[in-house]
Structure formats: structure tokens, C-alpha cells
UniProtKB/TrEMBL annotation:
SUPFAM superfamilies to which the protein is assigned, alphabetical: SGNH hydrolase
Signal peptide start and end residues: 1-22
GO molecular function: hydrolase activity, acting on ester bonds
Family to which the UniProt record says this protein belongs: Belongs to the 'GDSL' lipolytic enzyme family.
Keywords for this protein: Glycoprotein, Hydrolase, Signal
Source organism: Panicum hallii var. hallii
Protein known as: GDSL esterase/lipase
InterPro entries hit by this protein: GDSL, SGNH_hydro_sf, SGNH_plant_lipase-like
Family matches, as Pfam families: Lipase_GDSL
Amino acid sequence: MRCRLLVCLVLLAHAGPPAAVARDYAAVFNFGDSLTDTGNLCADGIPDYLATARPPYGATYFGYPTGRVSDGRVVVDFIAQELGLPLLPPSKAKNATFHRGANFAITGATSLDMPFFEARGLEHAVWSSGSLHTQIKWFQDLKPKICSSPQECRDFFRRSLFIVGAFGGNDYGSTLFASRPLPEVHTLVPDVVDSIGRGVERLIAEGAAELVVPGLPPTGCFPLYLSMFPRPPGMYGARSGCIRDLNTLSWVHNAALQRRIAQLRDEHPGVRIVYADYYTPAIQFVLHAERYGFLKQTPRACCGAPGVGAYNFNLTAKCGDPGAYACDDPSNHWSWDGIHLTEASYGHIAKGWLYGPFADPPILDNKHLG
């Protein structure tokens, strides 16, 4: 069964429930990587190598894989539903309508374009299916299906919500998995953040007046990185078990991104830009698991190869591969496949972005109520 057909069925069958308080967003447009991809990577069929488009992906909410890299919904799904909008169609979906928004996110996306990596000899270490700026080009190409004139487009986009990211995880991963030293990875931060800032400015130029710009989750807490980059004793958080220097990389990126957002706010006083936090909730899922209904345990993937490694993650038997199995109850795990989060985690994060405390300011703060 082709993923594009599944996506179309999902979009027709699962419209979000009405929000508790009416909102005035005309549409939502999302850009990002596998954290928010809802089917673009498999819109033309499932590649043989793509384990994330096989069961048990999608089992919790949809009952089958949809191209989302989770057991169910991702953050942008919860946001659309809370706003009373249908789930966003992937921008590459056939026979879809985009009058209430579109999702341009695609698994493997980077902030930076491929020439940046080629100039540094990293072209074989990064798999970018569409950078932020490529996705913005897709957005521009889709405009004739959304609105009929430049002025109509600007008016429509001014009443819409734009979510830009998270971006950066795959950029930094290119250097980490190429075995480059961590100080070299840190040198990418200004370029990655500058690229995100330029992307936001391009969308503002299109008429966007409400934007959400997420930071990165704590890289060192994810079973993939815990398995692939073991550290000597003493380099792990005493309470979290996460790799400290990899979490520092995410923290440095997020701090730089928040400084760039502050500059953008100064430069565009008529535009509202929200910083959305993936880092804090993910850390809380580890440190205060019971508070969110999760099991208190070492960071561990729900779906993986049981008995292979302390973190239930192994590259030779990833979730969706032969030999890998999902835990009995994904709702009590925060990590789905060791790289991405469970639907339960994304639901907590989305709520924190919408109402606080995981956003500055919350998407639906007092000025947007009623």
C-alpha cells in the first residue's frame, strides 16, 4: 500500500475537534524535518529502505503508517486540532487542498543547503531531502493553489500561523556521524542559526505575521546518540543519564537561536515570533517521568530490538526493521524509536507551546483568547 494513499485517507478521516476557544488563524503552514513530517518523504510511494513507513509506525492513532515518524500524531497535528483545523496535508500529497494550510516538513531536512556540506567534505554524511530554503521554495510554488493574487496571498498569510522548525538536528548530525570533533560541530551553530533567521525573514516578506520558531531537543538524551557516542564515566548527567556535551551543543544552538529571534522581533515590530521549546519538556520527561505518565527509567526507546543494548536501540534492528518490536504501551514512554518521540510526548509539548510554559510567549497567550 502506498503511503500517499494512506495520507489522503487520513486527511479526510481525521479532522481536529473544535478548540475550546475560537481562534482566528486562517491556516497553519509548517516547515521542518522528521519531527513534524506527516508524509512528504513517502508521498510518491514507500522507498524500500524506509523503515519509518512500516508498522508499528502510526499504530497508536491512525492504525497504520502515514509517514509520521512516531507511533501516532506529531506536534503540528495537535496544534492544528486545538485550533479547530484539519490535519495539515503534506505539501506533496496528490489531490489535496491547501486552503487551511500545508506541511512542507520532510524527513532528513537540514537548515543549510547542500553546497555548505559539500564545501566541508560532508556530502556523504548528510542526507538532506529538502532544506529549509528548499521547503520555502515549495511553499512559493504552492501559492497558486492557496490564493489567487499577491494581495490575497499576503492577507491570507497575515492571518495564518507559520511554524519554522525545528531545524539543525540533521545539520549537526552530519558532522557527528562523520566523526568530526565536537568543537568542529559547534562551528556550524552560527551558520545554522543564520539560515533559520533568513528563512523567517523570507516568510515575513511573503506576509507572515505570526511565526513559531522551535529550538532543538536535548541531543544527548536520545537513545540513538547514547548508543552511538558512548562517553567515559563522569560525562553523563548524574540524574538524567544523558550525555552532557551533546546536550550542551543543543543548548548553545537554542541560546543562539533565541538571540536571533530577539533581533528579528526588533527588526519586525509588527510581527509576532514565538520561541518554542523542545529542550525543557524532553529533559523533564527524563527527570520527572511520572509527572507526565511515563515510566521512570534510563532513556530507552519504546520501539527497538529488546535485549540489544541498554537503550533498546540498534542500527541493525531499528523500529520497523525485522527483529524490532514496540513496547506494549507507547503512552508511558517518551522516546518512540530512539530518535523521535511518542505521540504522548508530542501531545505534552504541543500543549506547552500553545498555553505555556514551553513557549515564549505561548502561541495562545491572552492577546489571542476570544
